[in-house]
Amino acid sequence: MKNQQPIGFIDSGVGGLTVVKEVMKQLPNENIIYLGDTARCPYGPRSTEEVITFTWQMVDFLLKKDIKMLVIACNTATAAALESIKEKLLIPVVGVILPGTRAAVKATKNGRIGVIGTKGTVASGSYKRAIQEKVPEIKVISLACPKFVSIVESNQYHTSVAKKIVSESLFSLRRQHLDTLILGCTHYPLLRPIIQNVMGETVTLIDSGAETIGEVSMLLDYFSIANKKNPQARRAFYTTGSTLLFNEIANDWLAPENVDSKQVILGGEK
Ligand code: DGL
């Protein structure tokens, strides 16, 4: 029975869809439920306490849907709330930060890793700490890119405005001699071609969310809860914001999946 239960994914908005895209590719038999708190996005500039409160509201919603595993497909929420959620839940809980650090440590040759993320993620120091706990000599240069999330949420990630903002925001990082750059926000892979273009082909980009699926897959096997035969996987999408805008982005990003999201309300919008 447990094998057929869905895996739950949460994010502040559409960013976690970059993680879902990888699940659909690597674990297509899994039933999934996605919740994006689009009405209260971005989480990046909010206080840790507020992010923890909002994240728990999303978790409580998904627990009622009987999920067998929870993926916090949001770096900001992972940095703020992963440990407390892990402690309290009886199902496996996976965050997106550690898998990204493992991939970056493996990829770097010159020991200079960049991390871009939201204000909250960068201020938490989670990436720097996790990388240097593994290899203290690695130099980690972090940069908050607060404008990126709204470019994605407003469906402007293919535009020249996006190119201009990304290029201006990453200007200082280009002089840091990085050979590896972690996309430490699940919204950023939608801007990946632009980021790669700005940073140059010699910089390896690490998609933290995509790296997380290796961990999800490993845990499904470890707990013997993988869904092995399920050619008609059920995928349900919920948003606290506009279903129209959510569907537009989701259908562009997850094509040929036909996303028809439902709106939900979580404990009093702010
Ligand atoms: N997608 C999120 C992350 O990975 C959060 C973006 C935001 O709400 O600021 O950090």
List the helices and strands and how they pair.
Blueprint: E1 7-11, H1 17-26, E2 32-36, H2 48-63, E3 69-72, H3 75-88, E4 93-95, H4 97-107, E5 112-117, H5 119-124, H6 126-134, E6 139-144, H7 148-153, H8 160-169, E7 180-183, H9 192-199, E8 204-207, H10 208-222, E9 235-239, H11 243-253, E10 262-263
Parallel strand pairs: 1-2, 1-3, 2-9, 3-4, 5-6, 5-7, 7-8, 9-10
Helix pairs in contact: 1-10, 2-3, 4-6, 4-10
Bound molecules: D-glutamic acid.
Distance between the first and last residues' Cα:
38 Å
Counting copies of identical and different chains, the oligomeric state is: single chain
Count the DSSP helices.
11
If strands are numbered along the chain, what order do they take across the biggest sheet? 4-3-1-2-9-10
Strand content: 15-25%
Mean of residue pLDDT values: 96
What is the H/E order? EHEHEHEHEHHEHHEHEHEHE
Largest sheet: 6 strands, parallel
Unreliable stretches (pLDDT < 50, length at least 5) are none
| Residues in helices, as a percent range | 40-55%
Radius of gyration: 18 Å
The class by helix and strand makeup works out as: alpha/beta
Number of strands: 10
| Ligands (ions, cofactors included) | D-glutamic acid
Can you tell me the overall shape?
A: globular
3D structure, described in words:
It is built from eleven helices and ten strands. The protein is globular, with a radius of gyration of 18 Å. The model has no long low-confidence stretch (mean pLDDT 96). The strands form two sheets. The protein has a six-stranded parallel sheet, with helices on both faces. With 270 residues, the protein is α/β, with parallel strands linked by helices. Bound molecules: D-glutamic acid (DGL).
